[in-house]
Design goal:
heterodimer; A: 195 residues; mainly alpha; 8 helices; globular; B: 213 residues
């Protein structure tokens, strides 16, 4: 894989085909953990890590186990198993090494298992037939895209809460969705980018 | 068992999307034509009922420490079945929903119902819960689809009705706005729907207070 195609794959996954704003993958943690910028940052970094490692392991499981045994129809089950065990590892690691981040992420840490971005990236890697390097780059760049999106959105939300000037029915979640929509609109501008 | 109460719970009081705010990825992503919405809603409902039944049957066997992993394996099994069935019998739907069919595994609604309902209640009640929650999800999905398709494309029933399944045209094409079909529209329409829900539940609560006085 040439360097240029790696760069274009990575930039595409971060800006043009952002996992949140154009593929709608990983909306639940995006909405749930975006109240404060620093927790959002922690979540983003955890997701980058899990997405990269999940891409590596799912690629290996698919190439070395499922394809030779002709078990491709078990893909979904196998991938979710790999991801669930990975998340368990990350959880144990954080609990030991960075307890403050562990407490801040709370319930959302085990929920990375059910983050559709992670399973989504594994499935998309297989579907698009990326090579090993392609899968890793796509996984990492997808994670970076998630980080960019969630940190941007968290800072918008912090200001929204600070002004608190919105109709009563829109308070809380609905106004956050509308704000996310506006950021998505801004991200659409990147689709004109030619790389 | 109170079927009426469970139905009202699933549809309004505890609607999975509008009140519990679960399963938003699929709600936002695929709600562009009526065909997609109904297909996704029915698939999720079937999987929800099946997984609720199995998990409720196994609730005394599964050790509580590994219960989440066990639930996910059960759910993934049913999702694989539905995925393969759709590929065989409804290839058009399978193609337009794409990666979002296998992603039903990580749809939080199913896991949330397994954890909060099926693991504590009997088989029949769990099956009914799966059905009512599934209907609640499907209805929100269908409403989203109708609004987005109407504003974005000017049609009704895309993929199902009209000439070559293109939908029945209501608005002339030059009065529509493509942005509602794009991701931006998904966020906006769902935000407005949840706002409407909050408005009506606030009004209902105020009315109840008035009546008490």
């Amino acid at each position: 894989m040439s360097f240029a195609s790696i760069v274009s794959l990575a930039l595409g996954a971060i800006l043009i085909e952002n996992f949140i704003f154009s593929k709608f993958l990983g909306i639940c943690p995006f909405m749930g953990v975006s109240k404060k910028t620093d927790t959002a940052l922690g979540m983003g970094v955890a997701v980058i890590f899990v997405m990269t490692v999940a891409s590596i392991f799912c690629y290996l499981v698919n190439e070395l186990l499922l394809v030779p045994l002709n078990l491709q129809y078990m893909q979904t089950v196998a991938y979710i198993f790999v991801i669930a065990s990975l998340v368990q590892l990350v959880e144990m690691f954080l609990q030991k090494m960075i307890p403050s981040l562990y407490r801040a992420l709370g319930i959302y840490l085990p929920l990375i298992t059910t983050n559709c971005a992670v399973l989504g990236v594994a499935l998309l890697n297989t579907q698009n037939g990326y090579s090993f390097i392609g899968s890793v780059v796509y996984g990492a760049a997808g994670g970076v895209g998630f980080l960019v999106a969630i940190v941007l959105f968290a800072s918008v939300r912090e200001r929204l809460d600070a002004t608190g000037d919105c109709p009563k029915s829109f308070e809380g979640f609905p106004i956050a969705l509308v704000a996310a929509g506006l950021i998505a609109l801004a991200f659409m501008g990147f689709s004109g980018l030619k790389i | 068992m109170d079927f009426k109460k469970q139905l009202k719970d699933g549809l309004i009081d505890n609607n999975p999307v509008l009140v519990q705010l679960l399963g938003m990825c699929s709600t936002l992503a695929i709600s562009t034509t009526l065909f997609n919405g109904i297909g996704m809603g029915v698939s999720v409902t079937i999987i929800l009922i099946c997984s609720n039944i199995v998990i409720s049957l196994l609730r005394k066997v599964i050790p509580s420490k590994i219960r989440i992993a066990a639930y996910i394996v059960v759910i993934a099994g049913f999702v694989t079945i539905v995925d393969l069935l759709l590929q065989a019998f409804l290839p058009a739907l399978s193609e337009s929903l794409g990666v979002f069919i296998p992603l039903i595994v990580v749809n939080c609604i199913i896991l949330a119902r397994a954890e909060s309902f099926a693991s504590k209640n009997g088989v029949l009640a769990s099956a009914v819960d799966g059905l009512t929650q599934g209907i609640g999800y499907t209805i929100v999905l269908v409403i989203m689809c109708i609004i987005r398709e109407f504003l974005g494309n000017g049609t009704f029933g895309g993929g199902l009705l009209g000439p070559e399944g293109a939908g029945i045209r209501i608005l002339p094409a030059e009065y529509t706005t493509l942005h509602i079909i794009l991701p931006f529209g998904g966020f906006l329409v769902l935000g407005c729907l949840i706002a409407a829900m909050q408005y009506f539940s606030r009004k209902a609560a105020e009315k109840k207070k008035e009546a008490l006085k």
